[in-house]
Amino acid sequence: MSRSNTEADGNHSVDSDHRLIIDGINTFYGDSHVLFDVSLSVDDGEIVALVGRNGVGKTTTIRSIMGLTPPRSGTIRKDGDEITGLEPHKIRARGISWVPEERRVFGGLTVHENLRLAAHSASEDQSDRFEAIYERFERLDERRKQKAGTLSGGEQQMLAIARSLLGPETDVLLLDEPSEGLAPQIVEDVKDIIRELNDDGVTILLVEQNAEMALGLAERAYVLEKGRVVHRSDANELLTDRSAMEEYLGVH
Amino acid sequence: MIESILRATLLGLQLGVTFALVAAGLTLIFGMMDVINFAHGALYMLGGYFGYTIATQFGSFWAALVLAPIIVGVLGAAMEKFTLRPLYGRNPLYHILLTYGLAVMIQGVVLEVWGASSQQIPRPGQFTGSITVGPVTYPTYWLFVLVVSTVILTVIWYAIENSNLGILMRASAHDTEMVNALGIDVSKVFTGVFVFGAALAALAGVLLGATRSVNPGMGAGIIIEAFVIVVIGGLGSFKGAVYAALLIGLVTAYGALVAPTLTELFLFVLMAVVLLVRPSGLFGATEAA
Fold first, then answer.
1. Which secondary structure element, helix H or strand E, spans residue A172, and what is its range?
2. If pLDDT is split at 50, 70 and 90, which confidence band does A6 have?
3. Could you tell me which of A167, A190, B81, B153 has the fewest CB atoms within 10 Å of its CB?
4. pLDDT tens figures, B36-55
């Protein structure tokens, strides 16, 4: 680790403020080793950015947490409980929700059917929450019966986020490249939604290629390079550290 | 002339709806699990044989119609859980080898238990006669098969379009990983769909076992028709399977009228033509989910 920050390294602490602790995970795709001893933590109510160039393992980190590509070693804890290697649906049941890269809405299903599917795994009736979702995402309300595949990129992103909020209560949101392929004005809308959700108490781990966007939202940031955490600091600090921005992210 | 065309039409529709019952399971299983199930025809055959034994031992066609699909459904559950499940996500060749092996095994067991000769399930007393409409005389049993199968297919169709389970099935055919990450235990859904598909195939085995015959080659025979249907309809699409099954049923019936020895050829020509015009089938991947 070339730079360290001033706050305590939380990797081995059992501090109850830690919503999510990832401790030394190694993840592989087949024989190819992608993540090397990655450790990071996200505190309750925080927005943490995970940035880095293309192909350094940001998405793999998210997939490891969600149980989609379980790590071969290392541990992942949520609220103190180990969740390493659980099946994705069990991880979802523990309050971790995933908004994937490229959104992956179900194109042949209507907007409302996409949301019904997400609500399917909840134990209790979610009709109130549907209405709350439609109030927050007015564009989706107007398009309830429209096939998700015919929505614009921005609308699909809203749907992917809305979908992640139904079903079991969400307290940690893993957002993978939410600004990807969106017009600047729509990126602003997405940022507003991320802030609103965070104000409502949702803890957020934000993976972004668009480092400036992510660092503008986040309190703290981690930088990944070739599958390793090479830097961590306050988001603002990184944003104003021109040499680090250039070295790790290629931003001039 | 008119008479034989009308008669062939009804035969074709009757065959079509039963083919749809067989193909429905095959296409749903492929859509959700990406498994090409060569043993599906063997499950259809088991339906026919269990139906035959129940109908002749207990003297009740109705008991056969209800019990045979249940027994085959249970066998299907065991097959999915113990043999297919460990292979999900692997190269599809593994599924082909496994299910082909299972089909051969089941056929061996059938030969051992029931012998090589052809049997027929006795038709229920109410439907042994025939009915004359205008110039044509139909066996009433054909009408019974047509009605029962149509009702079942309609219910499934409605459920797939409207129920939570239907939404779940369509979504899983599209992106299983995403469904799992939304908190849904897809492996349970897989078992459910497999059992359902097996039971439908068995039901078709009983229904057709009383018009065609019950024999050790029936599984290998129907699997060809069923695959042609699934490919024409579009892999994974229930809607497509129903339309394609009706098409294949009619082609089979009319083909038998014109050139009985060439019906199988007609099926493949039809499949080739559809694939040339629409490479992903009538309702294939272009229409997501």
1. strand A172-176
2. very low
3. B81
4. 999 999 999 999 999 999 99
